[in-house]
Amino acid sequence: MKNRKVIWRAATVTEARWETPTARTLVLDIPDWPGHLAGQHVDIRLTAEDGYQAQRSYSIASAWSPAAARTASDDETASDRGTVEISVQRLEDGEVSPYLTDVVEAGDQIEVRGPIGGWFVWRPEATAPVVLVAGGSGMVPLMAMIRARGLAGGRQPFRLIYSVRTPADALYADELRRRAVSDPGLDVRFVYTRETPEGWPVPPKRIDVATINSYGWPADFAPDCFVCGPNTFVETAADILVALGHDPKLIRTERFGGA
């Protein structure tokens, strides 16, 4: 995947499904897609009838890579096999996200460029334990990493800390719970900041030192750490990891502007 020219392609939407009341997953069929790594993203470009264009970047949620596609089994989900999925959180004042969540349907075409990015990626051949820290829709590229590990039959122990406002705002909640039950190497911890499920043992709270210290891997294990979410969330989580003794070189972050 090195020295490859990133070009615009016409992608056909083959499926559109709601993940939450405000977030939607689009499954894309992209001709001559070169494959991607978990953690990479694509650019989406929309063109209006008057020629005006708007472009935004969206993380890839699916696990697929050329090597993974050759070993995929019939038991894997579509997101594991060769499709490209993006999950889009609607921003009420956005130029692109409302169209992708509320207008696009199966059969429509959109322009896609990618895959893009080489730093914030996880490769199945990595052997270190992994800490994933997600805020809101920052879960998308981390979900790709979880799916990639599952597709490869990886034994690397993964611990996910996922912060959302309410239970209804959690992306892939059912899949995460299902994978955690069937895979002892995957631990999933939800943190709710505004409203908790009925019977939840702790009140709403933000991620803090105690959260990451309790549910992440100790710094002595030298885990690979991936943090994704809004700017302030990422800064806070990364600072906590450093304060807990994690090597800054092993902490990879990706952030977006919305809160």
From TrEMBL:
SUPFAM superfamilies tied to this protein: Ferredoxin reductase-like, C-terminal NADP-linked domain (SSF52343), Riboflavin synthase domain-like (SSF63380)
Name this polypeptide is given: Ferredoxin reductase
Family matches, as Pfam families: FAD_binding_6, NAD_binding_1
Coiled coil segments of this chain: none
Keywords, alphabetical: 2Fe-2S, Iron, Iron-sulfur, Metal-binding
Iron-sulfur listed as a keyword: yes
Positions of the FAD-binding FR-type domain: 6-122
Cofactor: FAD
Organism ancestry: Bacteria, Bacillati, Actinomycetota, Actinomycetes, Micromonosporales
